[in-house]
Specification:
The protein has about 120 residues and is an all-alpha fold. About 75% of the residues lie in helices and about 0% in strands. It is elongated.
C-alpha cells in the first residue's frame, strides 16, 4: 500500500510541477496510470511511468515535494492535536487519574487531526 501511495504521489507531483499546463488534469493522471500497465512478457520493456518516476527521483524534485508536504503535515498536527485535546477536555489531570482513558482520547484526537491534515494537504 505504501508503494502505491508513493507511486500516485509521484504521478501527481509530475503533473503538478513538470507537465505542461494543458496536461495538468485528471485525464492525464488516468493516462499515466494506464501507461504504467506491466508488460511481464517483455523483460526489456521500459515503462514510461517508471522512467518518469526515476527522472523525478534523480532530479530530487519528488523527494523535495514529499518533504515539503511532510513538514507541513507535521506542523499542522502539532497545532491541531493540542487544540482538540483542550476542546475535548483531555487534561494532565485525566492523564494522572486514568492513563488508559487519556491515551484513548489522545489517539482519537490524533486520528481526527490526521483526517483533517490529509484533506487539507493531500486530497485537495
Amino acid at each position: 500500500m505504501k508503494a502505491e501511495k508513493l507511486y500516485y504521489t509521484a504521478l501527481i507531483a509530475y503533473i503538478w510541477y513538470e507537465a505542461p499546463e494543458e496536461e495538468q488534469n485528471f485525464p492525464m493522471l488516468i493516462d499515466l496510470v494506464d501507461a504504467s500497465e506491466a508488460r511481464e512478457d517483455d523483460e526489456n520493456f521500459k515503462n514510461a511511468v517508471d522512467l518518469l518516476f526515476n527522472e523525478l527521483v534523480l532530479s530530487d524534485k519528488l523527494f523535495e515535494h514529499c518533504a515539503e508536504i511532510d513538514e507541513a503535515a507535521r506542523n499542522r498536527m502539532e497545532l491541531i492535536v493540542p487544540e482538540l485535546a483542550k476542546q475535548y477536555g483531555v487534561t494532565e489531570q485525566l492523564k494522572a487519574e486514568n492513563q488508559m482513558e487519556w491515551v484513548r482520547q489522545m489517539n482519537a484526537c490524533k486520528a481526527q487531526t490526521e483526517e483533517v491534515v490529509k484533506t487539507e494537504l493531500i486530497y485537495d
